[in-house]
## 1
Amino acid sequence: MAARKHSFFDREIMTQAAFDSIKKLNPRSMAKNPVMFVTEVAAVITTTVGLILSAGSEPLAFTLQVTLWLWFTVLFANFAEALAEGRGKAQAGALRKTRTQTVANRLRSDGSMEKTPADELRKEDLVLVSAGEIIPADGEIIQGVATVDESAITGESAPVIREAGGDRSAVTGGTRVLSDWIKVRVTADPGESFLDRMIGLVEGASRRKTPNEIALTILLSALTVIFLVAIMTFKLFGMYSNVIFSVTVLVALLVCLIPTTIGGLLSAIGIAGIDRLVQKNVLAMSGRAVEAAGDVDVLLLDKTGTITLGDRQATEFLPAEGVRVEELADAAQLASLTDETPEGRSIVILAKKYGLRGRSITEMPHAEFISFSAKTRMSGVDLEARKIRKGAAEAMRDFISSPFPPEVESAVKTVSQKGGTPLVVADSKRVLGVVHLKDIVKGGLKDRFERFRAMGIKTVMITGDNQLTAAAIAKEAGVDDFLAEARPEDKLALIRKEQASGRLVAMTGDGTNDAPALAQADVGVAMNTGTQAAKEAGNMVDLDSNPTKLIEIVEIGKQMLMTRGALTTFSVANDVAKYFAIIPAMLVNAFPVIGPLNLMRLGSPASAILSAVIFNALIIIALIPLALRGVRFRPLDASVLLRRNLLIYGLGGLAAPFVGIKLIDLLVNALHLV
Ligand SMILES: Nc1ncnc2c1ncn2[C@@H]1O[C@H](COP(=O)(O)OP(=O)(O)OP(=O)(O)O)[C@@H](O)[C@H]1O
Ligand SMILES: [K+]
Ligand SMILES: [Mg+2]
């Protein structure tokens, strides 16, 4: 995306965030965050009751400073949220600029063409887009092949191929056709386009609290109520023992004790998580999906294209006994003439090496081509009585309804054991031989899967390919498990089975036949190049269409959950420590017996309270970078991580206030602030 280079801490974003944090003081927007709302009410009380009405016995300088720092506390929390939103807003601005007004060539039902403004196009309209033109709306190519510049959406300048029929048929409004022409069926009404949704997503307009965030907010609210009650009993206790606590002191104490640190940073953490995905070119349709990614137990990966390069190439023809290799090559080519898959194209090319000239389908008016589908696992052509087919061994065995000759059977086996895909070719009932399709396992996968294992996540490869090939590739790639000979419905069934045993499942896919599984998975990552159906079914879209991105997605999700956990731990530990820091200081004059509890020896009760309030505000600012960037991620088992984090952030949260408040108190006293 155009504005990708921004950091959270760019001057422009910081300035905008500073303004926004004032705008966010609006009680209506504060009410979404109960802890900070209470803090704002506290600031209003000290401002009105303490300052304007000068109620209470405190010196004005003290009330004034406490009031100021309470307002800062609220502003700092707002600033954290505004900063988290900043990068997305900048990106949304850049995206809006690409939403230029274009004129579309709409096809009327009689086949003639008319010029129509793009924003008048509706679902099901047909448009023609030629080289140099902007695609006026989201749609599905129904005719033609073209190269498309999608840099407006993906930030990636290399052109991509989009074509009718296959798994690369979806086009996005706002992108540009570079060569050739396409006929597109519009799939989105104005205002509901991918670009519109993307703008809404990156600027956080459609962000809703996730179930976990709601649960945490409820917990934090409960803590707030408990402390509110505690402070009121404190007041009663003061009245009973003739110590007078002013409104300012009680309010200051309350704010120090309620979980303002996590309360102030919670939404920033969530927004930053989604934003980190956007930086990786992944659009998460909901915060819930990001959270689920962090908790995933099982990853389902396609073999072809995900684990392997996916550009399966025919490398060899292995004829059956009594069949010349030219004859096999000829039949394989015939069966592949209209097969636009990489496999099909490579067969046509390899066949040419056997002296076969390139055939044209126009020479064969009576030919009826049967295209490949993941369900039938074969493709071919009917030439009057001849039925030429090529396909997976299992499917072909069913097709000829008899066993293969032994040498064909063993060729299938040899190819498979090498991790190749054997395609059996037959002319009606006669088996001609085997085509060896070679695919290459992507580099660096073993390490990545090792990372998953370290996190306790199981990786499962699913493939339509046969058992032997699947086993060979699974071993080479280092996945934990595999499912071979899988049809689309088997993928769906596998996901349901894993979910039924309480596991969260993630998967990637691009094809229309992946759509049900993408919808069923807890995290369904659709490839941007994929079909419209796949993109609508998943809850994330990868603009780079890189299936191994799932690994980064899981890491970002985990990092987001860990950051939230770490800062919650820190916040609560912090508040407990503050209790011991301030209360003894406040009471030690009236009750000298508690002297030994007064560990910190702060200057005076007034300086103790002011220092605690200042610390409480500054800790939010200090933790903003951690909240936005996330805690450092290591691929460790969940329970190990939990223990580590409890140790670091729990102990850190306990120690920080003692050190921080003591230092601030020294400064407050040195400068005679109270
Ligand atoms: N163009 C084709 N023509 C005929 N048969 C094919 C063609 N492409 C693949 N096949 C056969 O059909 C099988 C199933 O294909 P499918 O696309 O479902 O799975 P896959 O590509 O092998 O694996 P994955 O599920 O990882 O994509 C393949 O293993 C292969 O044997
Ligand atoms: K607090
Ligand atoms: Mg496939």
## 2
Amino acid sequence: MSTSPPAPPDGLLPLLTADGMRAADRATMDDWDVPGRVLMETAGRAAVDAIAARYAVEGARVTVLAGRGNNGGDGLVIARVLAARGAHVRCLTLATEAEASADTAANLRLLTRLADASDRVEVVPFDDARQAADAPADLVVDALLGIGASGPLREPVRGLCAWAGRQSAPVVAVDLPSGLDATTGGAADETPRADLTVTFAGVKAGLVLGDGPQVAGEVVVAEMGIPRAEVDRAAAAHTATDAWVAAHLPRRAADAYKYSAGTAVCVVGSGHFTGAAVLSTAAAYRAGAGAVVACTPQSAQATVDAQNVEVMVDAQPETDGGTLAWAALDGVRERAESADAVLVGCGLGRDDETLRLVRALVQEVSAPLVLDADGFSAFAGGADALGERSAPLVLTPHLGELRRLLGDDGFDPEDRIETVRRLAVRWGAVLVLKGMPSVVGTPDGRVVVGPPGRPALATAGTGDVLAGTVAGLLAQGLDPADAAVCALHLGAAAADAWARDHGAGGLVASDLLDRIPRAAAERFPRP
Ligand SMILES: NC(=O)C1=CN([C@@H]2O[C@H](COP(=O)(O)OP(=O)(O)OC[C@H]3O[C@@H](n4cnc5c(N)ncnc54)[C@H](O)[C@@H]3O)[C@@H](O)[C@H]2O)[C@H](O)CC1
Ligand SMILES: [K+]
């Protein structure tokens, strides 16, 4: 039995929230007439397949911690099947027949009866954490809580989680590490870190968001009888596979010449912030733009020119503070009219006159436009003006910039998927909420979670590189949402290439630049 369903043809993998998983479960039982007991049995057996593919089962001493709910029911199935395959299983169960679901109660009866007739299985009705402490184990199975976890952990689950977290034996989490929120990725302090998480039907969003990557260990999707159509229907978001990125990256045509590969006009920089202009324009080239123009204040021209000989620097009128002046509007607008993509924001500064220029460009420029960094200050507290723009728009804020955009307009920073979805639809824009990982929302309500966060990328200037990469991909005609997702993957792959050569620390934003085209060729080769 395969433990991971094949990636869907388009290479986007579904992410399920708790509600989505429940909906898929429910639809499978009600509309497809698959009994819950069959789902539980299938899930448990698929979990054992994934365990057996990684750990020796024959003769192994396994402690299964089974909770009160259906996650515990899965654990009871796993205990029974592991014993049938030769393991010595001690199952500490919180479930009682009186309060468990019918499926869990049935599996409790079955396992208890088996225990009466076999020396391989011991079922220990559980009343406090002390009983777990005296049994050495080669493997611990955490089936205490799945998608039904809510709120701070309560005893005795809390004590058991803490016990599991202290074991030297590998921990296998069933569906989720217990206490990890399936939707947001928030984990309890006592959530035991798993070596392997066998999750059912589809990756739970919480496994790739928030604390999820830190506690989930290797994640394997176990196919357990829920039709793919129900999984895709219930998916709150998707993640892109390397194959998807490779299929969507633009490739330079054999007969390309500099303007056919697209022109990116970058309205960036100021007398005090030339670095952002240098990084963002260089990144646009590295992402494949054929020509890059920097519209930057007069006092920044020499530095940007010197740092990037390939960038055509079009010096513009500036304020006393060395930022773009309102008088630059005509010159920049003229440049933008011949652009295939425009980037506005990196290093612009927050002078009122400059922000007035930013608002005018966002409203008037017809080319696909990326707004980043200081550009958001032009819409602080008046973000809905972004929705008045009719041409494609990509926003690349981090959480602090999003807060500045929204003022005190309530949004839930914990539920990144729904926050990004709602705002992207509201503004009719592609919204990239940068973070670990970044999350991309589209104007039509889709959400794609970016690659797992790389701590090395948490350094000054990587946002300028990301924004420039998006602009460079847009300049080649890529769909705005695809450009955002590809840019995230290129940046992650470039950071990985750095880590391979230099170890995890010490990366600076400019180290990404020449690794972007190499990542495109090596990690995402033309299919
Ligand atoms: N047919 C199906 O539904 C299938 C479900 N699968 C597995 O079932 C879980 C979801 O089961 P559910 O009963 O809805 O919830 P849980 O077992 O995760 O937990 C509910 C259980 O835990 C208690 N609880 C909740 N929060 C806390 C807390 N903070 N501290 C302590 N205890 C807590 C609550 O009182 C309940 O007793 C799913 O993840 C799968 O593993 C399979 O997909 C197979 C088919
Ligand atoms: K669990």
